[in-house]
Amino acid sequence: MEFAKVTTLMKATALELAILTGHLVLYPTGIVAERLSPAPPDAPPEGPARGRRPVLLLHGFVDNRSVFVLLRRSLARHGRDGIESLNYSPLTCDLRAAAELLGRRVDEIRARTGHAEVDVVGHSLGGLIARYYVQCLGGDARVRTLVTLGTPHAGTTVARLAAAHPLVRQMRPGSEVLRELAGPAPGCRTRFVSFWSDLDQVMVPVETARLDHPDLVVHNVRVSGIGHLALPVHPTVATGVREALDADAPGMQGGRGEEPGASSVA
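and the corresponding structure tokens:
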């Protein structure tokens, strides 16, 4: 049994290194902000738009939109055509500023497409930024579903030497931002789907990537056998993200704070 755990960890580590290498190659392609897609030809200037909600992808700390190349391709192959990403500056020193930037981009997408709501997928810190926008800046009126991938909802203690950066300190357990997010959020309308991995070495402890809040409608999904960098890349997670975005709130399995099942990845 112990040998099987070691083997699984070794496989996950090897996959993380392979993904890191590939991502370093792709990283320069994501530095420049993407060109915004035009409004669809059938989008009315006023009133509700037709079709699926736009999806906005938000990267993690010191990263950029290139991390979502494979996830974006998977979503597009399965009928999502309104997919965009947002880069926030690595020099950003306050999560709240990034959340305000996100809010401006969401409003711009809504105005351009005619959709009243968007969906957001955030990896790592990106999920925390999006959660702050939804909970604290009124974003729940504009974000229908927020999917987080390896996000430190309760704070992570990893990389202590990097704590000099203000954003890293805001991801620490007990930070002012995390205390704000732990506060009451009555009537929050956004659906949350939180993917967390049992081998995520950036989330310490790994359960910190679960979202547990009495006022939020949350579905936690446990992923087995992959690490932090693999979450926005792995095809099984991509399938789960697609299902989460396509699900309707009334029929959403699990309800508040429950975890009805787990995704298992070899």
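(Above: one complete record from the training split.) The longest helix spans residues 2-26.
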